[in-house]
Design brief:
It contains 9 helices and no strands. The protein is mainly α. It folds into 2 domains: about 180 residues, Clc chloride channel, CATH 1.10.3080.10; about 35 residues, no CATH class.
Length: about 220
């Protein structure tokens, strides 16, 4: 039964990585198109973040949110914490602020795992740990590296589940990721043929062209 629960959670971890990657890329493009002046672009982005903080009534999602990550391994967190962290981080990066995606992805994965624990009736720290490595695996397309990182951080006792989580999240994240220039070595699906030397950005561009042709 626990295997099925891990599979379900891992699929959602993969989808969460898609949401983060695609939202960040879309906001970067949108901000760049709407605000040609980079100073105005970052100013507007900062205003939006401040407004979101006041609407949410908490500063937990600002910065790296390391305390929130720690809390996801110890206590229940807000069920939508992963969503708010995704949105605020995507807006910040999209507006041109540079702070990195690595730790925020850890936070998104940890809080999502914590939120799923109650639904799936499984240990929150266990699922937070899986989310920690699996969302990052899906967003960076590096399942083996993330699996090894998980063993180093959390020990080898749950190695099988960590491997499952990283591979499944990687597969369900599709040909998306936070690094648009990342080259695709092997297609994730036999139904989707990938041209040689394709990158994540070129795959997306080809999809847009195909859609335009169909229209």
């Amino acid at each position: 039964m626990i295997v099925l629960k891990v599979v379900i959670a891992s699929v959602l971890f993969g989808l969460a990585s898609i949401m983060f990657s695609e939202l960040t890329h879309w906001l970067r493009k949108m901000f760049a198109n709407v605000f040609k002046n980079p100073v105005i672009k970052t100013f507007i982005g900062g205003v939006i973040v401040i407004l979101l903080v006041y609407i949410l009534g908490t500063r937990d999602y600002l910065g790296l949110s390391v305390p929130l990550l720690q809390e996801s391994f110890e206590h229940p967190v807000s069920p939508l914490a992963f969503l708010w962290k995704t949105i605020l981080t995507a807006v910040t990066l999209g507006a041109g602020y540079q702070g990195g995606e690595v730790t925020p992805l850890f936070v998104i994965g940890g809080t999502l795992g914590n939120s799923l624990a109650g639904v799936l009736h499984i240990s929150a720290p266990f699922l937070a740990g899986l989310g920690f490595i699996a969302v990052f695996s899906g967003a960076t397309n590096t399942p083996i590296a993330c699996f090894i990182m998980g063993v180093e951080l959390f020990g080898a006792e749950g190695a099988l589940y960590m491997f499952m989580a990283c591979i499944i999240s990687y597969m369900f994240s599709g040909h998306t990721g936070i690094y648009a220039s990342q080259q695709i070595g092997v297609s994730k699906s036999k139904l989707h043929l990938i041209p040689e030397n394709s990158t994540l950005s070129s795959i997306k561009l080809n999809k847009v062209k195909d859609a335009q042709r169909n229209d």
